[in-house]
Amino acid sequence: MSGTARILVALLILMGAGLFLFALMAEEPREDNGTSREPKQGGAGATPDYTDPLARAHEAKPGVLDDPTSCRRCHEEIWDEWAGDRHAKAWVGKLYTELSQKHSDPNCWSCHAPRPVLQTGIDSPAEARGNYRESGINCLSCHRAGNHVAGSSKTYSDTPEVTADCGPVFDPRMARAGAQDATIKFCGVCHALHGTDQEFMRSHYYRAGKTCLSCHMEEVVGVVAKGGTPRKRHSHRMLGAHAPAMLKRAMELTARRDGNRIVARVTNAGAGHNVPTDARHRGIWVRVAFFDRYGQPVPVVINKDTGERGAEMVMDLIRLFYRHEHKTPTQIPPKGTLAQQNWRESSVSVPDAAKGGHARVRLHYALRWDWPPEKSTLVHEVKVSLE
User: What single-letter DSSP state applies at residue 128?
Assistant: First the structure.
C-alpha cells in the first residue's frame, strides 16, 4: 500500500472514531438501569430545568415579568389569596411602617420588598428591589427565575385556555418530593434572620419530612390559572402570628394550684419553631387575676418598684430580647427538640383575700411586646379554683 493510501485510511479511521464519540456525547444520560434520568427534585443547589423544550419555546413576553400586577390576569384566585396575606402588606403594613420609622431604615428593605429570590439565590441574603415596593413580597419575589415564572408543576398543558406569556417552567426547588431543605432555605432567605430555620430543623417536624409550607401554606382545592381544572395546591394566604386560629394551635395553656401558689405552663404544642420566633418585637404574656369567694376582683401588686396595684399581674413574658437588653431569651422550642423541653412554667403566690375564690390565667400574644393587653390577641384562658 502506498504512503498516500495509508494516510487516507488513517484519516478515515480517525473520522469514524470522532463520529462515534460525538454520538456517545449527544446521547441522553442514562441511569444504571437504562431509564432516562429525571431532573433532580430539590436539595441544596438544585436548579430549574430550563433545558425542557417547552420552556425554551415559551419564554415570557417582554415586560410581563416586570410588573407583578400582570399575574392577576391569569391567576386571579391565587392573587386574591395573596392579597389577603401579610406578605402583600409587607411594605405598607402599619406595624412595619411604625417599626421602620416610616421606611427610613434600609436594613428592613431587603425582606419587605425583596428582589426575586430565585435570582439572588436561596443560599444568599435577600436583596432589596427598587420598584413596586408597595406590593411587598409579591408574586415575582418568589416565582420569577430569569425569563420564566417557576412553579412546582411539570406541565401547564391542562390549562390550554391560558397563554404562556409568563413562560411557566418547572422548578424542582418548589416543595416537591425531596426538596425539603431547599424549601426551608427558600423561606429562610428572609425568615432565618434570627434562626427560625435552624429552630425548625432541630424539631421532630423536620425529622418527619415537614417543611414551612406544611403549616403556613395549607392544601386547598382550587385552580392555578383561569380555565384550569381544580386540583390540590397550596394556598397563598400564608397564615402565621396574625391569625388567632394558628396561635391557638401553636400553644397550649394549663394552670394549677400548688399549695399557696398558682403555676401556669405554656406548651409549644404545634409550632415547628420557637414561640415566639423571628421578630424581637413580639412577645407572649402570661397574666393572672384573682377573685374572692363572691367573684369580686382582688387587687394585686403590678409594679414591685412603685407598689402600684391593679386587677391583673404578670406571671411571665416569653420573647427573644434585643441585644442591648442583655437578657436570656425565654422562647419555647418546638416539640422534639433534642435536649430541650417544649414548655415553660411560671408561678405566683395566692393573695389571702382570694382564698375560697378563683384565679383566671390568660395567655396573650402581642405583635409588639410593649402593647397593652387590649391591643394583643387573647389566645387561651384558664380558670383555677382556690376553694
Answer: B
Residue 159 has pLDDT above 90, yes or no: no
Q: Which amino acid is at 91?
A: W
Which residue type sits at 231?
R
Nearest-angstrom CA–CA distance, 114 and 305: 45
- Could you give the domains of the chain? 53-234 (no CATH), 244-385 (2.60.40.10)
Residue scoring higher pLDDT (123 or 3):
123
The three cell numbers locating residue 280: 424581637
CA distance 218 to 237: 8
Alpha carbon distance 261, 290 (integer Å): 12
Whether the Cβ atoms of residue 133 and residue 113 lie closer than 8 Å to each other: yes
pLDDT in tens, 297-327: 999 998 888 989 999 999 999 999 999 999 9
Cell of 306: 412603685
H-assigned helices in 3-43: 3-26
The 10 Å CB-count burial string (b at 16+, else e) for 32-52 is eeeeeeeeebbeeebebbbee
Q: 244-249 long-range contacts, Cβ below 8 Å, gap at least 24? A: 244/377, 244/379, 246/215, 247/365, 247/377, 247/379, 248/379, 248/380
Q: What is the pLDDT of residues 207-256, one digit of tens each?
A: 999 999 999 999 999 998 888 889 899 999 999 999 999 999 999 999 99
